[in-house]
Write a structure and sequence with these properties.
This protein is of the alpha+beta class. It has twelve helices and seven strands. The strands form two sheets. The chain has a five-stranded mixed β-sheet with strand order 2-4-5-7-6, covered by helices on one side. Strands 1-3 form a two-stranded antiparallel ribbon. The longest helix has 72 residues. It starts with a helix and ends with a strand.
């Protein structure tokens, strides 16, 4: 299935390919800055040489910061801002409106368009357009004019080198961008194939035996448990039937997600009471909580607003998966907390545990269906690796967002555990 342009751009910006491409661009720009620093030193302008070296080192530090702090969007915006400030400084020293470095300002909005959000792109487009206007007004009305550091043949040489470098850099960026987008699209199509395979398994390989279990549990309850003394057996059969119905609802909701993904159906959001959703989750996961002696604490403030969501999707897919994961990676006797807060028209739901945490190398890929992120739980519980990608897909379908912070349990670390935050819109 071919993806539309808007979906393609979204897939690229949400994938690791964006960060990898930014790394390549930063390396290329750093090398260019170091080359230009040699030219400035050669022409007898050490201040400009030092400025270029500073830019190159700053970009390399940004790459280091992306790896260490795992905050790629912030680092990318910081790098774009540093680049704009550097080019403004260079343009002033090169004579303002007469500066050949003004052509380099084209790279700033191009960078913003590739790596950042639409609002950042608009911001730097305006700044890049405003800067030449300010230089022009300065030349027209200021008594003290900007004097370029290069004149004559040196100016023409430097201007020619600038034009060639900008053209080469933009062409190479476009080539790398097209290649990165193609890889992101291929990964997305592979992910969709895997999701369709999972849905097929759930619908047929699980769904059909489940229907048989529900049928016979109902027959046993109706025909064989009416005798006196079978109260406990009836309770067991009712529990089987109840949990079987929950699984059936989950399979139905996953089918709905697939229909939404394929464009065959649209999701209708309504007002959902979070307390009722948490009650459903606690009821479904009661046996798991009791088996590991884990306490689930839900804290929803009084008169808390309802959220705009799909109730079954929120309860059976999102919260059930998140709490089930917390149980899986918590130790016996631990406590899991669900905390809710409102900020303006957004609701933040935090699922907090003090378990063994998530390794740092897994966190960037935890929502990717293509990466192997499944691990054994604290009591060797197995997982599929499909849970968290399904959770993110569901939250995004409800116009929400999801974030994760975690610290792995190791010697000397006391504040280990995981916090997953689901962000949804208020219903009113």
């Amino acid at each position: 299935m071919k993806l539309e342009l808007q979906q393609t751009i979204f897939l690229f910006k949400e994938s690791k390919k964006k960060d990898l491409l930014f790394g390549q661009v930063a390396w290329m720009t750093s090398i260019s800055a170091f080359i230009f620093s040699l030219l400035y030193f050669q022409f007898g302008h050490p201040l400009m040489g030092v400025a270029n070296i500073s830019l190159g080192i700053s970009l390399l530090l940004c790459l280091w910061g992306m790896k260490v702090f795992q905050r790629s969007d912030f680092i990318i915006n910081l790098a774009i801002t540093l680049g704009f400030c550097f080019l403004t400084f260079m343009s002033i020293w090169h004579g303002g409106m007469a500066s050949p470095t003004l052509i380099w300002l084209l790279l700033v909005p191009v960078c913003a368009a590739i790596f950042s959000s639409f609002s950042v792109l608009v911001f730097f487009l305006l700044l890049s357009a405003l800067e030449p206007v300010c230089f022009l007004l300065w030349d027209l009305f200021a008594e003290k004019k900007m004097i370029p550091i290069f004149t004559g043949s040196e100016y023409h040489l430097f201007a020619g080198i600038s034009f060639v470098f900008v053209a080469l850099i933009i062409c190479s960026w476009m080539f790398m961008l097209v290649r990165a987008i193609a890889l992101a699209v291929k990964e997305a199509e592979d992910s969709r194939s895997k999701l369709e395979e999972l849905i097929h398994i759930m619908s047929h390989d699980i769904g059909n035996p489940l229907a048989t279990i529900l049928l016979f549990s109902n027959v046993i309850k109706q025909r064989h448990l009416d005798r006196e003394g079978c109260g406990r057996c009836r309770k067991y059969v009712e529990t089987i039937e109840e949990n079987g119905n929950v699984i059936h609802r989950i399979i139905s909701k996953v089918r709905t997600l697939n229909a939404l993904e394929c464009g065959k159906k649209s999701l209708v959001l309504s007002s959902v009471d979070l307390r009722r959703s948490f009650t459903d989750v606690e009821k479904i996961l009661k046996s798991q909580l009791e088996r590991k002696n884990i306490k689930l604490t839900v804290n929803v403030p009084e008169e808390f607003p309802q959220v705009k969501a799909d109730e079954e999707l929120l309860s059976l897919v999102v919260f059930q998966n998140l709490v089930s994961n917390s149980i899986k990676f918590s130790l016996p006797g631990d406590e899991i907390k669900i905390l809710c807060e409102q900020q303006e028209k957004k609701v933040y739901i935090h699922v907090v545990d003090t378990g063994v945490g998530v390794p740092e190398n897994i966190i960037p890929n935890i929502f990717s269906i293509n990466e192997q992120t499944s691990r054994l739980g604290t009591e060797k519980e197995k997982g599929t690796g499909f849970g968290m990608p399904l959770v993110k897909n569901s939250v995004m379908r409800m116009d929400g967002d999801i974030r994760i912070k975690s610290r792995e349990k190791r010697e000397g670390v006391s504040d280990h555990g995981t916090v997953v935050t689901v962000i949804l819109n208020c219903a009113s």
